[in-house]
Amino acid sequence: MQELEPVIGLEIHVELMTKTKLFCGCSVGFGAEPNSQTCPVCLGHPGSLPVLNKQAVEYAVKAGLALNCRIASTCKFDRKQYFYPDMSKNYQISQYDQPLCGEGYVDLEVDGKKKRIRIKRAHLEEDAGKLVHGSTAGGDVSLVDYNRSGVPLLEIVTEPDISSPAEARLFLTKLRNIIQYTGVSDCRMEEGSLRCDANISLRPRGTTELGTKTEIKNLNSFRAVERALAYEIERQTKVLAAGERVIQETRHWDEQAEVTRGMRSKEEAHDYRYFPDPNLLPLLVDQGWVERIRATLPELPDARKRRFMEELGLSDYDAEVLVAAKDVADYYEEVLKYYGDAKMAVNWVMVELMGLLRKEGLEITACPVSAENLGKLLVLQEKGTISGKMAKDIFAEMFSTGQDPETIVKEKGLSQISDAGVLAGLVDKVLAANPESVAAYRGGKDRALGYLVGQVMKETRGQANPQLVNQLLRERLDQPE
Ligand code: ADP
Ligand code: MG
Ligand code: ZN
Fold it and tell me: Quick one: which of 139, 292, 308, 428 is 20 to 30 A from 280 by CA?
């Protein structure tokens, strides 16, 4: 049989972090008492009327611009009819043939080459409520929580441009990063503010016609996306190898069993009986307003990475790791306000700081060491006030106490001794106490010097400047007796 290649397209739902819902004034806060954030509109009471939230449109435009999408100057809202108990209107207000955001793209780096994943569209829609399954004395129950009903979502749909499960994960990571930079969503998959459905088909490698796809739902981590796609490639390969046909359907990823299972045959667009919502006017999007939103976009990850490499001289790897976590890159740039050596600073942030944060299970936003204090510590090291080894010890102390480096250095009397006058006395003392080592060195055993340096370091509890001790010892030893 001919070799097959996977073809993947993703549909991503992102919850927009507005204060209120898409069509009513209810709060969108996560984790509130069930059904405490509801009103007749988001409960779907007949006769209630939706009013569009301008902030949600602004956030959707902002995300769309960050994804290089064309923003429609006019669009509309449509009803998508289906029955589900957590959606009491029996239709969802979404956008069908006129999405707010049109074609866009995200560029990835795959095996050192640029790979463009096209965005087909991104549209605004309302979220449904949530079913909570549990059991009571009377038996198993399913309860409905409508707090999430009406929360604004941006649904981002890619073209089928993704070629492997790993690439799908890379794309999602990058997409999440870009959206997080815009600040319109926190994109927390575990809280459901980022959700992903994955579509996949196979076709003979090198051909262009699309095969029959399946859509996988219930993916609640990036890892799940990758594993489910890998499983589905294997399953579809077997189906095709057996001479059978893949059935177009929606499949559910069973996280425990690590398999996908058929849920229902895929509905077609016409099954939803889309029609324009008569309660909402078409939306005219002022292009001047769009440009004002564009002006509020922050520097996005790709541009920031380029700047880190070109202006700060960071390696591709360091720049990539830094920008991949906006909070870490922000912290790093804050350190640079106090300390100028960009490469030294990157090592400290990525090795020492991230190491301790990982060990303590802390996010950088909860880091006990402020960026200013880390910067000041590095300045002390650069000036030679403290040695590299001492800097690490002081840093650990800063991390556990939150104190600034100057205070720790002062209170512990920790500064490095770089005063030749002070060290000369100690050097003499050590030489007088170790005549055998002196004789050995003068007899040609260079190694004896190391021992003598160690003795001076010991006398100063490690605080002497080792280069200076070395130099002073050599001067004395190389003098004729
Ligand atoms: P539907 O109408 O079934 O929702 P869409 O055309 O809207 O299909 O596409 C939904 C998603 O599925 C998109 O991300 C798209 O890229 C992807 N997709 C469409 N056809 C295929 C295919 N044959 N194989 C893999 N992915 C596909
Ligand atoms: Mg679809
Ligand atoms: Zn409401």
Answer: 292
